[in-house]
Design goal:
By secondary structure, this protein is an alpha+beta fold. The protein has one domain (about 5-94). The protein has helices at about 20-45, 50-94; strands at about 5-10, 10-20. It is elongated, with a radius of gyration of 22 Å. It comes from Candidatus Magnetaquiglobus chichijimensis.
Amino acid sequence: MTATHEVRIQGQLFKLKSQASGEYVRELARYVNDIMDQVARESHVASVERTAIMTALKIADEHLQLKRAMAQQTESANEKISGLIAASDLLLKG
């Protein structure tokens, strides 16, 4: 069921409709707010728009790095599984 959740990011109130729990939506908002604070501190960017774009790029970078790492782990696991299947086939035949 979709619900409306109110969150504050960079002092601005946002009303978000989501099927996720209010706790999860607030956690997302805190995460975005924290990253925006970090970007603003590190880059000394004055405009909220530039801070938001830089924050989006930072979060996208984190996401892509995690996605690539997960793909590598999946590939490694699949190779190990294939090796185990081949070894078990040899043992069962032998």
